[in-house]
Amino acid sequence: MISFFSAIPIVVLILGLYFIHRACTPPKELKLIPTVPIYKFAWAVLFNKGQHEIQRVISESDPEKFGLVKIFLFSGWSVLITNIEYARVFFSENAQAPDGHPIKRFFGKGISFANGEDRIRQRKMATPAFNKSLSPEMIGECTNELITLLNKWNDVPLDIFTLMKRITVQTLGKLAFSYDMKALDSLEEEPYFIKTYEKVTELIQNPIYMILKFTYKLPLKVNLELSQVIEEFDRLIYKVIEQRKLDIAKEKKSEDHKDLLANMLENIGNENFEHNVKDLRDELTAIFSAGHNTFALSAVFYNLAKYPKIQKKAREEAFKVLGDSSKIPNSENVKDLKYIKAIVKESLRLYPAVVMLPFRKVLKPVRFNQDVVIPERTSLSLNIWQVHKNSDLWSDEFKPERFMNQDDKENWIPFSSGHRNCIGQNFSIMEQIVITAMILLNFELSLPPNGQKFDKMPLKSSFYTLNPKDINIIFSKLKTIVEI
Ligand code: HEM
């Protein structure tokens, strides 16, 4: 008789053989598509070799030539689109968000994973509310809080990701939820909201889910821990909702100044509140997660610190447009900060914050070329990094000037495109321009002496979004007056 414990290695062996068999036999329809070297890929992800290495492994299957690669992921075969021509397949209605993804456990029915009517309803509600709350002045006020904080840390190397997380969370909290996240009060303590959210995202991106998707359903310690932190995050988000509900009952804000959450609460109405509060939680979670994209600003500051000539030119523009260091840009000023906008766009090209779009399933078969037709239900993603690095379209250097003459190039897709494109795109670009300009008016940015040795921005091995690896930047109070 086999005991329970001696059966475990047998079960592991059978599962292992099953997965090796599946990994070695891709569906016949995908046979012609080049394959990403599976062991090298798993090694780069599991041993945290960094995003440059992950993408280098993908490049081994010559993504530029074919425009598609196939990869064994999430216990099955998927296709990654790597050129702009095929990207429209991904942007079409034929590509739908799948069910049963580990990430859904946290995001629930939020906009990023909803399909059909649900999605249309959520977008209709969020987009106008979002555009209404676009306010460079509010972003400027939060940036002033950041400047006050940085004055206390003059000439000290600071972790740029942590810093940018604080300013983006603070801005989003005030603009979208009228909630003070207390993210810029001090650098000593990490605000509890951020800490809890970070823990959820860390656990949810566990590489084991990527290789063996079904493990997210097992009664494992990691899954139990994930449930507990999600519960804690929910407690905090329900508190934000409750607080806003109480405040709205007291205040009389004009239509134009209603934030996103106020609009959502109004849409639900008091009678249906209890019934819909879970949906509201899901929507806010999606917006909170997408809305404080910390990486993009980190990359802007890294590039400014790395290229002093570009930094100088950007500062000159900021002084020319804004006049003095205490000025908060208004909407007209933002339009005139053209070189800073080009820096923001070039940073997003070289380092697309969302590097790989969440997988979708195609509803109907898709013909890519004469020989390749992928069957319905094939899992598909778009690798923005590869599209942005295509050597036929872009030179491999940081060159903001390329965005000065021609505006949105169609090969530039950091915010995706089509029916699921980013609703926060305008807000995000404006936010980055305002924060960058105000910081440049007050500080000189530099990399610590050992930082200069990096040829490329050091990145962690995260899968969907980029994450910098221990990048410190020094903010030194500007001493000289800039001649305009
Ligand atoms: C540099 C900053 C940002 C980048 C690079 C970015 C990028 C993206 C991308 C690539 C998508 C498509 C995801 C998909 O296909 O599933 C997306 C969707 C979305 N983004 Fe952003 N985003 C940024 C900032 C923001 C901000 C500031 C907000 C809101 C405050 C926001 C809200 C959203 C929402 C709600 C969606 C889901 C749209 C839908 O599924 O219909 N994003 N974003």
UniProtKB/TrEMBL annotation:
Which amino acids does the record list as binding heme? 422
Tell me the protein family, please: Belongs to the cytochrome P450 family.
Any one GO MF term held by the record is:
iron ion binding
Q: Which UniProt keywords apply?
A: Heme, Iron, Metal-binding, Monooxygenase, Oxidoreductase
Report the source organism: Dentiscutata erythropus
Q: What is its cofactor?
A: heme
Q: Which domain of life is it from?
A: Eukaryota
* Protein name from the UniProt record: 16162_t:CDS:1
